[in-house]
Amino acid sequence: MKYLIDSNTFMTAARSFYSFDYGTKFWDFIETQAKNNTVASIDKVLEEINKGNDALKDWVNKKFKNYFLSTKEEKVLQKYAELMQWAESKSNHYTRNAIDEFMKEDNADPWLIAYAYAYLNTSNYIIVTFEKPNPNRKNKIQIPEVCNAFQIKHCDLFQMLKDLYFTM
């Protein structure tokens, strides 16, 4: 199994559960898993993290920068286009604002999903996010809803840590 980590997972971990003040074992574990080719993320997530000016930005640029995968690959771009068509087709469910927000080029969410989708039959990535499935929500397209529509696996950070046998 390979895991692709969403921006909100990095940010929530850094700002609450595993602050860099006391959670160094967690961050070392994430780095080790990346070196073992088990954990990664994408360039668009790095861009979102780099908008901040905090310990997370410092850490990803010093310890994790080589593990942000490029979304510029042709097959990722094709899957991204497919996801954009899917989002447009959901105008009977989601608000126009939700669709427009999902389709913003600097929104890492669809790119993360497109990357996992492009490698669905080879790498079988699992997207790690704190977003929860909510099929009734109309004002935001959530990662789990899109993953479910395209049969892409997803989990939260704690499930990933359990699967990878992380201990404090």
Q: Would you give an account of this structure?
A:
53% of the residues lie in helices and 10% in strands. It has 9 helices and 5 strands, in the order βααβααβαααβαβα. The protein has helices at residues 7-17, 24-35, 43-49, 55-64, 74-89, 96-102, 108-118, 143-150, 157-163; strands at 2-5, 39-42, 68-69, 125-128, 153-155. The protein has a 5-stranded parallel sheet.
Short description:
This protein is of the alpha/beta class. The chain is 53% helix and 10% strand. The protein contains 9 helices and 5 strands, in the order βααβααβαααβαβα.
Key features?
168 residues; 5-stranded parallel beta sheet; 10% strand; Rossmann fold
Helix/sheet category? alpha/beta
Main β sheet profile: 5 strands, parallel
Q: Name the strands of the widest sheet in spatial order.
A: 3-2-1-4-5
Report the helical percentage: 40-55%
What is the H-and-E element order? EHHEHHEHHHEHEH
The low-confidence runs, each spanning 5 or more residues with pLDDT under 50, are: none
User: What is the typical, i.e. mean, pLDDT?
Assistant: 96
Radius of gyration, Cα only, in angstroms? 16 Å
How far apart the termini lie comes to 22 Å
Number of helices: 9
Shape: globular
How many separate domains make up the residues? 1
What is this structure's SSE topology?
Blueprint: E1 2-5, H1 7-17, H2 24-35, E2 39-42, H3 43-49, H4 55-64, E3 68-69, H5 74-89, H6 96-102, H7 108-118, E4 125-128, H8 143-150, E5 153-155, H9 157-163
Helix pairs in contact: 3-7, 5-7, 7-8
